[in-house]
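Ticket #4471: structure output looks truncated?

Reporter: J.K.
Steps to reproduce: submitted the chain below (153 residues) through the standard prediction queue, then opened the result file.
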Amino acid sequence: MTAPRCRPGLRHWRVRGLVGDTLALVDSIRMGPANATLRFVCEVAALYGIGAGAWAWTDSVIATVVLPVVAAIAWGVFRVPDDPKPPPVVVPGVVRLAIEAVVLGGGALGLGAAHGWLVGGIFAVVLAVHDATTPVRLRYVLSCRQWGGSVGD
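Returned output as attached by the reporter:
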């Protein structure tokens, strides 16, 4: 028996507002262009931060190159289904969010070590604001419980 896929029911959810209940039709995985651009910039900044932090902490060219490459590979390979496209290896949502926390948090720490803790703190605040503005995506990712293989398997 295969594990259930992510909950498709998250596409429609109720928003309680001042005027009353309205039905919000929200694509549960895709973000608007502004959030998608911010996410991409944060991902690239995190990889830079990991490399810059590795250089600041170790003065090792190998660590400066290898750590961001390993982070980028983990980021690109281990994903939940349809976030934003089929992943090479399917992991549960909590595993995906743990990978994101390690890469993005490592980027914030690296930026702090290399360029000052104010820069790292500002980056961490931007990450928190981004996650706060994409709760539907977070709910979708957390609803994914599938383990192993690729979507095509």
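Triage note (M.O.): checked the attachment and the full token line is present. The CA atoms of residues 16 and 22 lie 7 Å apart.
Status: closed, working as intended.
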